[in-house]
Structures are given as structure tokens and as C-alpha cells.
Design goal:
Layout (H helix, E strand, L loop, with lengths): L2 H74 L4 H10 L4 E8 L8 E7 L11 H7 L4 E2 L3 E2 L6 E8 L4 E8 L2 H6 L9 E5 L5 E3 L3 H5 L4 H5 L6 H11 L4 E7 L2 E9 L8 E7 L4 H22 L4 H4 L1 H32 L6 H16 L3 E10 L2 E11 L12 E3 H4 L1 H7 L5 E4 L5 H9 L4 E9 L2 E10 L8 H69 L4 H32 L7 E4 H13 L7 E7 L6 E4 L1 H17 L4 E12 L2 E10 L6 H4 L23 H11 L3 E7 L3 E12 L6 H9 L22 E5 L3 H11 L5 E5 L2 H10 L6 E5 L7 H10 L4 H5 L2 E5 L7 H6 L4 E4 L4 H11 L12
Parallel strand pairs: 19-21, 25-26, 25-27, 27-28, 28-29
Antiparallel strand pairs: 1-2, 1-6, 3-5, 4-5, 5-6, 7-8, 7-11, 9-10, 10-11, 12-13, 12-17, 13-14, 15-16, 16-17, 18-20, 20-24, 21-22, 22-24, 23-24
């Protein structure tokens, strides 16, 4: 062998040893650094994932807590609790059901109060530990469980309401899996969640979630799961760290930590297969470099030193590329995190923050957002937000804008169909180039923004310092960021629209309520005079002949007009949610008798007979709102009589027991004019009177049936109709009432009712017995003189002394002076200067005497919208009477608040 060959071999050998040693040491160092960097990346991803999941959990609990608050508010204002519950359950598509659970007292089990949705809480869950914790005041998200009723995998969000109640939202058990399914680590890595027992709560392998896989339990019988069970067991202990395990023959890195917002001991893991890690790619790269260098050293032994630098350069490039990718991923995650939690209060600050993050990552000096505005035949792009290095959050003061079609037609053509603009300024057409140069732009990337599938505007990323185009990775970051930013803009726009619409609706309802309150007062005040004075005149008994007949017609017309006003106000209350069903125990025989007596007189001289069919097994006492029931029955029976010119009207009434309640059924059948088939569909609509040509002489607002049906619905019932035009109609009312006892009305009462011979403690309106109150003295306060005349006339039948004043100020002075000690004050509500509520407050709170604090004050109100009993009682009144004044209600009020049995000497008036 020649020396040259030996030298060549020596050089080759030395070069090979040097390459091998260098690559071995460098490879080990690089792998160690890469491993540490990779572990830091995985740990950073766990923090990001933790914020994402914690935000999702907090958002879920906040939304359910908001629903609970809405329900509490509805119940506090006597709203329709179940209806509000339905609205809250339907507000989000990912909530399957809302269930209200009340905690048991004195060892009693919890119970379900109400629910709405397709999958309420199963009874086996209502006494669970999570419910008990929620009753103690915690917001809890449960682990997954198989619902026994449906077999579906569910999660429960439990939040306290008030007192001893909990609101539970049922959602899809795959909820968190669906959030995480699109997040990929490297090529096939993923994020998973476990509960404190080790059961899988979220994983791309949905079968693992649905079967509630637990590797800790599997490892007890199968050793292949030992490694993963060790990691999972560490996670259940609330620890944070990085581990490695093999599953399905693949080694995986796993960074894990407990979830910050979890109160149930949940933990998450970020998993990346080892074969997909940067470490694996680096090792392969090092081997390729080593073989390449050895091959080159054989060919070029002399310049071998020059080639030794190449592998290290390649390694540095790989590390730099990985770091660059990591920064872009971190920026994307940060933008997503900001935009997920964005709210209207700090919307612009968060928008500017995201613009800055994108600008810094893509190394551009300026980011602008333009919004489109229609301007005659063109569209003007107007600068809305601008971020620059020198003024990152300064909104543009001077309007910057340009016309799309006139100045940049190519831009509009591309952006409006979803394409990006990506070019150096010098490569644009002349008009567009001059526009960019005027704004100091050397290179441009513009991405369109679409809101509700409409071209809303665009974002401009301006490089004003060098002619440098963004890299594909930077373009991807910027376009993704703007997509998320567009979604945030759309959400904010929808929130603003909803807020504006809500305020407009509230203002409309407030205006409507004020209008109805005023119109109620204005109409009922003269009605009080018409009905009250005509009733007083009729009570004197001195009228005869035509005068008495005319006055009776005035009284009857006033009652009819009052009924129409009440119908309109009832409908308004129903529409605004202020209509209430107030249950109490009532005598069914008395209710039937009152209804018959009131409606039988409507027949007059018509050749029509009225027949009552009462089941003698009907319970004598039921529980429900008898006033509203009587309102429905009166409407149906009066309609039957009104629309029947000859023949008969039959009323059938019966009950059917159903657990703790009964179904009360009323069937009213007539031989009247009937209803056309086309009119039946609109029979129960508001302000509608069918077949108006044939019925033009029949009085009515067209509201009675609509209101009756709405009331029946509120009583868990309905009104149905069958009719044949020209033959007659049958109306069936079926409602649920409370069961009180099994005592029936019996055959005697039933027979008396059928023969219209039933009498009870109720008497004819003008012939009931009044208790004499000559010892009493009352003060009537009203700014309308005729109302004072009516009140004085109604009260004089009791023999009491009546003083009248026409203002709240004068009433306050009377009580402050105490020259006369009144037994009660009848206080008008709506008066000028000081209304009745303010006058009552001053009497109760500012005069300071025991007399002022304790004198009974009865409200007199013509305001049927605001004048409800609860409102007056909360303002210092003892009772209230609505105008026109009902003499029975007046008598009951006097008996309760004015009568003093210790001063009575006997006798009646």
C-alpha cells in the first residue's frame, strides 16, 4: 500500500473518527436540548389547554348561573316560572335540559321542582354529592355518567339558586371532547381529560369516553396498561409533570396538570407520539448528515474540515425552524384565548391586543381594519382600527377612506369573493400602487372579513420598512387570526344588536304599560261615576217607569263598557307576563249558581231554554282561581245565549280525579247560529269577531274567547270547539284544579242547581245586609269631585261620618293635625302634585305618630295595570279597591278594617 494511500486512509480514518465523535457528542447534546425544549413546549401547551378548558368550564357555569338568576328574578316578580325555565333551556342548543331541584328538610330526600328540555336529571342523581355541594353554595360540573332513562352519556352543571334550590343543566357528555377534537399536537397528538377517579372525560377516541374507560382499573387485570395507569394515577393525585408511556405499541410523551377551574379533581394531559416529535426528526437528520460527511470524506479527504460545519448548520436551522413554529403556535393560541373571552366592555382593547400580536409575529409595522359603507353606486372602505408600533391603541382621528370601485376595482373583485391580496407595492397596477405609496406601504397582505356571510370589510397588514413578503407560515397565522377576529366582531355586533333590541323592547313595554295605566285611569274614572251614581240612584227606590228603565240601561251599559276595558287590560297583562293565577279553596255549587244567575237573565224574552246538567258526585270544594274560572264560564255561557235566538242551551259540568288534582270539564252546547269552518281557525285570535256581517248587532270586543283560552292554558287546560254552521256549537273547557276532599255536592244540591233553586250565603247585589257603623268616621281623598260624590253616596248607607278632601297634601295635613281621629282613609292613587303612594309614605314615615303609622289606608285606584294588591300592600296600604267601586268589595273592606264590634248596639241598615 502506498504512503499516499496510507495517508489517505489515515486522513479518512481520522476524519471518520472526528465526524463520529462530533456527531455523537453534538447529537447527544442536541437531543438533550431538543428534549428539554419539547418538554417546555408540551408544558406550555398544557397551560394553554388548561386556560381553554377552564374558560369553557367557567363559561358553562356562568351561563347556568345566569339562567338561575333569571329564574330567581322571574319568581321574585311573580313571573311564569316554567315559561322562563323553558326559554332558558331553549336559549342554547348544547343544553339538553334544565332541572330545578329543592333540598329536602329534616332528613327528607331532595326533589325535582320543575324541568324543561329533552333530558332532565334522573331521580337517582338528585341526592348525589354534587347536588349536596351545590346546595351548600358551590358551582359544580359533574363527571360523565350514563343517564339511566336514555342510555346517553351526560354531564351535569349544578349551580345554587336561592334558599334551598339548585339549577342543574344537562349537556352532552361529549361536550369537552367536541371542544378538543380539532386540536392536534404534531401530526396525531391530542389533549385528553380525566376525572379524579381516572375515568376518561374527553379524548379523540370517543369510544373511550362513551364507555368511561379507566386505565387504572384496566391495569389491574392487563399489564400492558401499567405505564399509562402510572401516569393517570399521578394525574389523579393533582400533580403536574411530564411522563412517558406506551399504548397500542407507540411510545408517547404526556405533559399533565390539574385543571385550574375544576372543583371535581379533573386533570388534563397533552400527548405527543415520540415518532412524530422533533427529537425523532433530529436523530434521523443527524444520521443522514453523518453518512453524508463520511461519504464526502472518502471523496474529499483534504477539505474534510470545511464539511464538518454543515451538520451543525443543519441542526441550527432545524432548531430555529422549530422555535419559529412554536412562536407562531403560541401567538395563535394567545389570540384564540383572548378572543374566546372577549366581552363588550373591553372589546376594543382586546382587538388592539390581537392586532399587535399578529403584527409582531409577522414582523409588520402596521395593521389596519377597514369597514365597508355603502355610498350611492360605490362602496367606501373606512378605517376603523389602526395598530402601529408607536401608537398601538390609538384610534384614527382623521377619517381615512377610499372608494373601492373607483380607486381599487381589482381589490374589491378579489376581497368580496374571499380571496387575499398578497404582493409588493411595486407589483400592483398604477392606481392601486399610488394609493399604497401615498400611505407608505412597501408590501401588503390584505384579508377579507365576512360577517353574517356579508363582505363587511378587510384587514391590511402593511410592511412600511422593507420590501418583504410574509412567509407562508406568517400568512397562515395572519389569515387565521383575522378569521377569529371576524368571528369576535360578529359576536360583538350581535351582542350590541341584542342589547339595543332589548332596550327598545323594554322602552316599548314601559311606554305600553304607562299608556295602559293612564288609559285605564282615564276610562275607569268616568265609569266610576256612571256606574256608581246610577247604582246609588237605583238603590234609592224612588224611580219608576221610563226614568228607572233609562237609568238601568245606563248602569247596564256602564257594566258592559267596564267588561270591555277589563278584557283589554287582561289581554295586556297576559302579553306582558303580569297576569296571575291565584288559587284558593272555593265552593263549586256557589260558583255554578252565580254563573247561572248572572247569565239566565241574558235570555230575556227570547224563546230559548237553559238546562243545567250537574254530576252529583262533583266535589263540593276545589282549589283554584275561582274568579278566573268564573270569568271563563261566564264568557262561554253568555256567548252561547247571545248567539242562540231560539232553541236551547245545555251546560254539562263534571269532574274526574287525577292523583292530587282533578280535571274539571265544562261542556256548553247550544242550538245557535253556529260557526263557519273557516272561522273556527281564527275564533280564539285577539280582537276578532267571526262572521261580523251576520253578528253585527251582537255586542262584544272579540277578546273574550281569546282571553278565556289563554287563562285555560295557564291552568294546564284548554278550550276546544265543535260547530256546524246554522245548527249550533259545543264549547268544551277542561282545566286542572286542586283536590281538597272526597265530599260530593250530593243529589239534593245537584237537583236544586238543575232547577235553579240553589241558594247560599251570597245574595242579590243590591239586597245584601249592611252593618251599621254610626260610630265610624272616615276620610276620602280624591282629586275628582264626582268620585268624592260616588264614595260619599256608597258610604252613607252605613251611617258613618264621611269627610272628603281633594288632594294628598290636605290629607297629610288632616292626619298631622289630629283634630279628628279617623277610623280609615280611602286614598286615591293617581293625583296631581302628590299621588296616593307618596302621600301614604309621608303619613307612615314622616309624621311619626302611632296614629299615622297605624291608621288603615285603603287604596282607591282606577289604574288596573299598576294597581295590584301586592304593590299597594308593599307601599303601606292595608287593602285596595278598584274603580268603579264594587259594593261587595267595599262592604268586605269596611267589615275588616273599620268595623268595631265592641261599639255596636245591634240593628242593621
Amino acid at each position: 500500500m502506498s504512503i499516499r494511500a496510507q495517508i489517505l486512509l489515515s486522513v479518512i480514518g481520522i476524519a471518520t473518527l472526528i465526524i463520529a465523535a462530533g456527531l455523537g457528542i453534538g447529537g447527544a447534546f442536541t437531543r438533550d436540548q431538543m428534549r428539554q425544549s419539547m418538554e417546555r413546549d408540551l408544558s406550555a401547551l398544557t397551560d394553554t389547554a388548561d386556560r381553554l378548558i377552564s374558560f369553557g368550564m367557567d363559561l358553562l357555569k356562568a351561563e347556568v348561573a345566569l339562567s338561575a338568576s333569571t329564574l330567581v328574578e322571574a319568581e321574585a316578580h311573580n313571573g311564569n316560572f316554567h315559561k322562563v325555565l323553558q326559554e332558558q333551556a331553549n336559549a342554547r342548543s348544547d343544553i339538553w335540559a334544565l332541572t330545578v331541584i329543592e333540598g329536602g328538610k329534616d332528613g327528607a330526600p331532595n326533589r325535582i321542582v320543575d324541568f324543561s328540555g329533552s333530558l332532565p336529571v334522573h331521580p337517582d342523581y338528585i341526592n348525589s354529592n354534587n347536588i349536596q355541594r351545590a346546595l351548600a353554595g358551590e358551582d359544580i360540573i359533574s363527571t360523565t355518567r350514563i343517564d339511566p332513562a336514555s342510555g346517553k352519556l351526560v354531564l351535569h352543571i349544578c349551580v345554587p339558586m336561592y334558599g334551598n334550590r339548585v339549577l342543574v343543566a344537562t349537556i352532552d357528555g361529549m361536550y369537552f371532547s367536541n371542544i378538543l377534537k380539532d386540536i392536534v399536537i404534531w401530526d396525531s397528538g391530542h389533549i385528553f381529560i380525566i376525572d379524579k377517579e381516572g375515568y376518561v372525560l374527553a379524548n379523540p377516541r370517543q369510544d373511550w369516553v362513551k364507555e368511561r374507560r379507566n386505565f387504572i382499573n384496566l391495569a389491574k387485570t392487563d399489564s400492558q396498561y401499567q405505564d399509562v395507569a402510572t401516569v393517570i394515577s399521578t394525574m389523579t393525585q393533582g400533580k403536574e409533570g411530564i411522563g412517558m408511556y406506551s399504548i397500542d405499541g407507540s411510545k408517547r410523551f404526556c405533559a399533565y396538570k390539574p385543571i385550574s377551574s375544576s372543583q371535581g379533581g379533573w386533570a388534563l394531559g397533552v400527548v405527543g407520539p415520540q415518532k412524530e416529535s422533533p427529537l425523532q426528526d433530529t436523530s434521523k437528520g443527524l444520521l443522514i448528515v453523518a453518512f453524508t460527511c463520511i461519504a464526502l470524506s472518502i471523496v474529499l479527504a483534504v477539505p474534510v474540515s470545511a464539511h464538518l460545519e454543515k451538520p451543525y448548520s443543519a441542526i441550527k436551522k432545524v432548531v430555529g425552524e422549530l422555535e419559529y413554529q412554536k412562536n407562531l403556535l403560541h401567538t395563535t393560541n394567545k389570540i384564540a384565548e383572548i378572543l374566546l373571552r372577549i366581552d363588550s366592555n373591553r372589546f376594543e382593547d382586546d382587538i388592539y391586543t390581537c392586532m399587535g400580536l399578529m403584527a409582531q409575529s409577522a414582523n409588520v409595522g402596521r395593521v389596519r381594519i377597514f369597514q365597508n359603507r355603502q355610498e350611492e353606486d360605490d362602496i367606501r372602505a373606512v378605517l376603523k382600527y389602526e395598530w402601529t408600533k408607536d401608537a398601538p391603541k390609538e384610534r384614527p382621528t382623521d377619517e381615512v377612506s377610499f372608494l373601492f370601485k373607483a380607486q381599487t376595482p381589482n381589490w374589491y373583485a378579489k376581497l368580496s369573493v374571499g380571496e387575499n391580496l398578497f404582493s409588493l407595492t411595486r407589483d400592483f397596477p398604477e392606481r392601486e400602487r399610488k394609493l399604497l405609496e401615498h400611505n407608505g406601504v412597501l408590501a401588503l397582505l390584505s384579508a377579507p372579513i365576512f360577517l353574517k356571510n356579508t363582505f363587511w370589510g378587510f384587514t391590511s397588514f402593511d410592511n412600511c420598512e422593507e420590501e418583504r413578503l410574509a412567509s407562508p407560515q406568517e400568512v397562515g397565522l395572519l389569515v387565521s387570526g383575522m378569521t377569529m377576529l371576524g368571528n369576535a366582531l360578529e359576536r360583538n355586533m350581535m351582542e350590541e344588536e341584542m342589547t339595543r333590541a332589548r332596550k327598545e323592547a323594554e322602552a316599548h313595554n314601559e311606554a305600553k304599560s304607562r299608556f295602559l295605566a293612564n288609559i285605564s285611569h282615564e276610562i275607569r274614572t268616568p265609569l266610576n261615576a256612571i256606574i256608581g251614581l246610577s247604582e246609588l240612584s237605583l238603590d234609592t227606590g224612588g224611580l219608576t217607569g221610563e226614568n228607572k228603565d233609562n237609568l238601568s240601561k245606563i248602569y247596564s251599559s256602564g257594566i258592559t263598557l267596564l267588561g270591555l276595558v277589563n278584557d283589554i287590560l287582561d289581554l295586556s297583562k297576559i302579553e306582558s307576563g303580569k297576569f296571575e293565577i291565584i288559587p284558593s279553596e272555593y265552593d263549586i255549587a256557589s260558583l255554578i249558581n252565580d254563573t247561572i244567575n248572572l247569565n239566565s237573565v241574558r235570555i230575556g224574552s227570547k224563546p230559548v231554554s237553559l238546562h243545567l246538567h250537574v254530576d252529583e258526585t262533583l266535589p263540593n270544594v276545589l282549589q283554584g282561581d275561582d274568579l278566573r274560572l268564573k270569568q271563563m264560564l261566564n264568557n262561554l255561557l253568555s256567548n252561547a245565549i247571545k248567539y242562540t235566538t231560539r232553541g236551547r242551551v245545555d251546560w254539562y259540568i263534571a269532574c274526574e280525579r287525577d292523583g292530587d288534582s282533578v280535571w274539571l270539564t265544562s261542556v256548553i252546547k247550544d242550538t245557535g247560529i253556529g260557526i263557519r269552518p273557516d272561522d273556527i281557525q281564527k275564533l280564539f285570535s285577539d280582537y276578532n269577531q267571526v262572521d261580523t256581517r251576520a253578528n253585527r248587532k251582537i255586542e262584544g270586543s272579540g277578546l273574550g274567547l281569546s282571553i278565556a283560552k289563554k287563562i285555560a292554558k295557564m291552568m294546564d287546560g284548554d278550550i276546544t270547539v265543535e260547530s256546524e254552521y246554522g245548527v249550533g256549537s259545543t264549547f268544551t273547557l277542561r282545566i286542572r284544579q286542586g283536590f281538597v276532599n272526597d265530599v260530593p255536592i250530593g243529589p239534593d244540591v245537584a237537583e236544586n242547581l238543575r232547577n235553579f233553586k240553589y241558594f247560599d250565603e251570597k245574595r242579590n247585589r243590591r239586597k245584601f245586609v249592611r252593618i251599621p257603623l254610626p260610630y265610624a268616621r272616615v276620610l276620602v281623598v280624591d282629586d275628582v269631585p264626582i268620585n268624592l260624590d260616588v264614595a260619599r253616596g256608597l258610604l252613607r248607607h252605613y251611617g258613618m261620618k264621611v269627610d272628603c278632601v281633594d288632594s294628598g297634601i290636605e290629607a297629610i295635613a288632616r292626619i298631622r293635625e289630629e283634630k279628628i281621629h279617623y277610623d280609615a282613609i280611602f286614598m286615591d292613587h293617581m293625583m296631581p302634585e302628590i299621588d296616593g303612594i307618596e302621600a301614604t309614605r309621608i303619613i307612615r314615615e314622616e309624621i311619626g305618630t302611632d296614629y299615622a303609622k297605624n291608621i288603615p289606608i285603603i287604596a282607591l285606584t282606577a289604574n288596573a295595570i299598576v294597581g295590584n294588591e301586592n304593590m299597594f300592600l308593599s307601599k303601606g296600604f292595608q287593602a285596595f279597591l278598584s274603580k268603579p267601586i264594587d259594593i261587595r268589595a267595599l262592604d268586605a273592606t269596611l267589615d275588616h278594617w273599620v268595623r268595631d264590634k265592641t261599639k255596636e248596639t245591634g240593628g242593621t241598615v
